[in-house]
Amino acid sequence: MLRIIVGISGASGIVYGFRLLEKLRFEKNAETHLVMTRSAERTAYLEMGKSIQEFKQLADHCYHIEDVGSQLASGSFQTDGMIIAPCSVHTMSAIAAGISSNLLIRSADVVLKERRRLILMVRETPFHLGHLRTMTSLSEMGAIIAPPIPGFYNQPKSVMDLVDSSVERVMDLIGLPTEDAKRWNGGKP
Q1: Mean pLDDT over all residues of the chain?
Q2: Are residues 40 and 117 in contact, defined by beta-carbon separation less than 8 angstroms?
C-alpha cells in the first residue's frame, strides 16, 4: 500500500486537489493523508462551493495545518511521497527556501530530505524569472514540477476531462496509474 500525502494550497484550481482525492479514494493500494491550508479552505468554497469537511471525507487521515508536531513532520513516518494540488507560488517558494512555517510546507520539506517523491502542481501563469529559478532549484532538490497542463490528444469533451488529464498524469508520477486514463496511442483510433 502506498502512503501518499495530499497537500492542498490556496491557489486557484482547487478542483485538482478534490479530484485527486476522489481518484485516490478508489485506489485499493493508496492511503491518503490530507493537509489543507486556510486559504485552500476559502478557495474550496469560492471555486467549488465545498467545505473542508467534503475534502476530509475523501481522505483516510486529515491533519490541521498548524500541527507541526504531527507524524507527517517527521522523516521516521514512512510515506511514499506527496502531491500538492494545486500548489501556490507562495507554497512552492517556502518549500524551496526550507521555511517550515506550517504542516504542509514541513511535510514537503520532510519528503525532500528523505529523498521521497514530491510532486508540485504549480498553479500560476505567467511565470517570472524568480518563479522559474525557484522551480529549477526545487527540481535540483528532487521535486517534480508538474503544472496542470492537460493533453488534448484524448479529445476532451468537458472541463473535468481536462482536469482528469492532469490528475491522472500526477497519479502516474506517484506510482498509481489509473486504468481508465486516456493515453497517447500513436494517433491510432
Answers
A1: 95
A2: no
Q: List helix spans (H) across 114-177.
A: 129-141, 159-174
CB 131 within 8 A of CB 115: no
Backbone angles phi, psi at 171, to 5 degrees: -65, -35
Residues in the chain: 189
φ, ψ at 3 (rounded to 5°)? -100, 110
C-alpha to C-alpha distance for 35 and 38, rounded to whole angstroms: 10
Per-residue pLDDT reduced to its tens digit, 33-63: 999 999 999 999 999 999 999 999 999 999 9
For residue 69, what are the CA distances in angstroms to 14, 35, 99?
26, 13, 15
Closest CA to 23 of 167, 148, 169: 167
Q: How far is CA 103 from the centre of its chain?
A: 14
Residue 117 has pLDDT above 90, yes or no: yes
Domains of the chain in sequence order: 2-174 (3.40.50.1950)
Q: How far, CA to CA in Å, does 171 sit from each of 38, 84, 100, 140?
A: 25, 12, 25, 21
